[in-house]
Specification:
By secondary structure, the chain is an alpha+beta fold. It has one domain. Helices cover 43% and strands 19% of the residues. The strands form 3 sheets. The protein has a 4-stranded antiparallel β-sheet with strand order 1-7-6-5. Strands 2-8 form a two-stranded parallel ribbon. It is elongated and about 60 Å long.
Length: 206
């Protein structure tokens, strides 16, 4: 993820600090049909943040563009009424061999928008299993280190080659996105994806 910002952002950060004091973590309102795990949709995230941002003179915009090698890129801009701004760019590859390429592209765009929105504003998902007091940790502790950005990128690229929906992988580990999966699962995920690719090659050769 790359970031850009205006020369001065003091007023923006002050307003963001006030907004974060009022922002609640997002309740999970959607379900992964394959693994029966819940996650917060993009719409649910936007419904939580929009009124609070507006109250403090903040705005949030996201645009989509194409990157290198057919990647999909999303630029998220957090703006302040003073004219100050803070932007982030994030790109991911897509599986162009998917049966429905347009649908696959839409999934990647939605994933990027939701991931960047929650990351930039510092909000997480609230458990929907009755344990209302427990929240998804935003800061991993030492014995629960999560996947690094490089590892997330490696998994995303291999998943695209294997034709595996990234949400299926996340659902398997009860995670909303790759950033919430523990680092010790990296090798297992990569091996599983490699095995899927090998099996597909074997079927093609057969």
């Amino acid at each position: 993820m790359t970031e850009h910002k205006s020369q001065e952002i003091a007023e923006l950060l002050a307003a963001l600090s006030l907004a974060q004091g009022e922002l609640n973590n997002v309740e999970k309102d959607s379900e992964n049909p394959f693994f029966k795990s819940g996650y917060a949709s993009l719409a649910a995230c936007l419904n939580v943040v929009r009124p609070v941002l507006a109250k403090h003179g903040l705005s949030y915009q996201q645009t989509v563009s194409s990157g290198e090698a057919g990647q999909v890129c999303v630029t998220s801009v957090l703006g302040h009424k003073s004219g100050q701004w803070w932007a982030s760019d994030l790109c991911l590859g897509i599986n162009h061999n998917a049966q429905n390429a347009a649908q696959e592209t839409g999934k990647v765009i939605t994933y990027l928008r939701r991931y960047m929105l929650t990351a930039q504003l510092g909000i997480a998902q609230e458990d929907d299993d009755g344990n209302a007091g427990k929240l998804v940790s935003k800061t991993p502790v030492a014995h629960q280190t999560t996947l690094t950005e490089k590892e997330q990128g490696n998994i995303q690229e291999l998943a695209n080659v294997a034709g595996v929906d990234i949400q299926k992988i996340c659902g398997r580990y009860d995670a909303d996105d790759l950033s919430q999966i523990k680092g010790n699962q990296y090798r297992s995920i990569m091996n599983s994806l490699k095995k899927t690719i090998e099996n597909e090659k074997g079927n093609d050769n057969g």
